[in-house]
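Dear support,

We are seeing what looks like truncated structure output for some complexes. This example has two components. We would appreciate it if you could run it in full and send us the complete token output so we can diff it against ours.
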Amino acid sequence: MSSYWAILSARFRSLLQYRAAALAGLMTQVFWGLIRVMIFQAFYRSSNAEQPMSGSDVETYIWLGQAFLAALPWNVDTDLRAMIRTGGIGYELVRPVDLYSYWFSRALAWRTAPMLMRAVPLLVFAFVLMGMSPPVSLGAGLAFAVSMCAAIMLSAAMTTFLNVTMLWTIAGDGVMQLTFGLIMIFSGMLVPLPLFPDWSQPVINAMPFRGLVDTPYRLYLGHIPLSEFAGVLAHQLFWIMAFLIAGRIAMASALRKVVVQGG
Amino acid sequence: MSGVLDSLYVYRRFLGVSLRSQMQYKASFLMQLAGRLLVNSGELIAIFVLFDRFGSIGGWNVYQVAFLYGIVNVSFAVADAMSTGFDLFGDMVKSGDFDRILTRPRSTVLQLGGQELTLRRISRLTPGIAALVFAAMNLELDWSLANSGLLLLSVAGGAALFAGLIVLQATLAFWTTETLELMNALTYGGVETTQYPINIYRPWFRNFFTFGVPLATVSYFPSLAIMGVPDPLGTPLWFQYLAPLIGIGFLLASLQVWRFGVRRYMSTGS
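Here is the complete output from our reference environment:
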């Protein structure tokens, strides 16, 4: 655990060195959020049919998505990739920590630090200027907080799993691209999941990706009632465990026949 | 004339080398292609999902929006594939690699444009073309010479406009030695914006993408003319036909700014 805090604070300090880049990223996301909000507003103006989610709920969902975007498992750890390519991975193997836990802590810090940097200013902006609504109740707010923590754990578990696959592929771009495509479509980042066709809902609900975005946001909106909180949290925890176990098995089998590149 | 032919020959050789090197890692390459295809089809899937729920947007149906999506994405794919070198330009300035390019007896634009044609960048073409075909099959368009010509012109104008944006973004690196993420808001954000009809947006935003970064002139306006739909914003037909030329003008202007930047370039010296 202490190694986790050390990594997290190091990551924070290095991120804070690039304030201009952080500001540029923030403005990009505000711009992006505005485009998406206007598109959805236009869709809601164009139809009188009853929708599974209200227009104002969708707007809040979009701003939450922009605020917590950096928490998504959208890339592999480039430092680890460089190590695997150059042979620096040899040093990782001799560290006096459990390698898998260490990589997981690393992934957790890697996701948390940039997310916190962007989430706070973006949420302030959305609340003050864009009319984003607060959690529907105190209970919903707490459920959101717990579920968001689970979402970040899930993201870190997926990231670690993807990092481990690099031990085989070296590049990792292919697996990453495929996963990223699935996340974009089935997490709710592109279109809030309740708006997907009714026949597709059972499949979408079974997949792990909703746990990254859709589950916490809908708890926040009260769109998933508190009575279902335990069930959706169990879904998130199940997939966290699944990725952690799969990653650990994959790493163990990779390390049995590891070839350290370079010399 | 022989200068142009020579440039084309060199450009083709650059691309050949780049493609052959990527094919060396076949499995990784195929997975990347599949993944990119999925990522780039995401927006198109979103369009189908949303139209399934809402039926129309601002008076446009799913076929008309698919047509817009097709024009914008094919344009961007072409521009993106031709300007990878400009994309990576910030790193070249930082490392001093740009100095090497300046010493070679070919223009900087040709060398950077032919830098690397990453196949994965072409993956954006597929959903774009699929959307255009899907739209054309359902829209009963009049494929007169004028309309076919206008479609080609608007894709060419769109590619030129996106290429111009990428060149401008790279030019900034002469001063900042850093390519700015903010400019991505204009390229990727522009694709996102103009794959939907521009009349759905608030006026300030619409004006920004018509007069500031004139992406609407290469997609929205010519599409109206091709589909034979009167513009809810009230522009005349002749304007809709000529609008894509603005994209080509934008690229020419960007290249002038680029040349100005090259003349003022000071190496980082490393």
